[in-house]
C-alpha cells in the first residue's frame, strides 16, 4: 500500500465487477466483511481499497497482497 492507514476508506472496489462498494466492515486496517450490491460478490478477499486497487492496476498482479 502507498500509505498505511487504519481508518476506513470511503468505499472499496469489487474486483469481480470493478464497482465501488459502500457496504463493508472495516477492522484494524483491512476488510473484514463486504458485499457488492452490483454483482452480489461477498468474498471480502476480492475487495480492494482505492489505494490497493491502484497498486494492483500498476503491478498487474495480486502478489502485493501477500495472499
Ligand atoms: Zn461486484
List the topology elements.
Layout: E1 12-14, E2 20-21, E3 24-27, E4 30-34, E5 47-49, H1 50-59
Antiparallel strand pairs: 1-2, 1-5, 3-4
The structure holds zinc ion (ZN).
In short:
The protein has one helix and five strands; from the N terminus they run E-E-E-E-E-H. With 67 residues, the chain is of the alpha+beta class.
Defining traits:
alpha+beta, 1 helix, 5 strands, globular, binds zinc ion
Describe the 3D structure.
This protein is an alpha+beta fold and 67 residues long. The chain has one domain (12-65). The chain is 15% helix and 25% strand. Strand 3 and strand 4 (30-34) form a beta hairpin. The longest helix has 10 residues, at 50-59. The protein starts with 11 loop residues before the first strand and ends in an 8-residue tail after the last helix. The model has no long low-confidence stretch (mean pLDDT 85). It binds zinc ion. Residues 14, 16-17, 19, 36, 38-39, 41 line the site of zinc ion.
How do the strands line up in the largest sheet?
A: 2-1-5
Percent of residues in beta strands: 25-35%
In total, the number of strands is: 5
Average of pLDDT: 85
Gross morphology is: globular
Bound molecules: zinc ion
Helical region count? 1
Taking all Cα atoms into account, the compactness measure Rg is 11 Å
Sheet having the most strands: 3 strands, antiparallel
Identify low-pLDDT runs: none
Number of domains: 1
Fraction of helical residues: 10-25%
Distance between the first and last residues' Cα: 14 Å
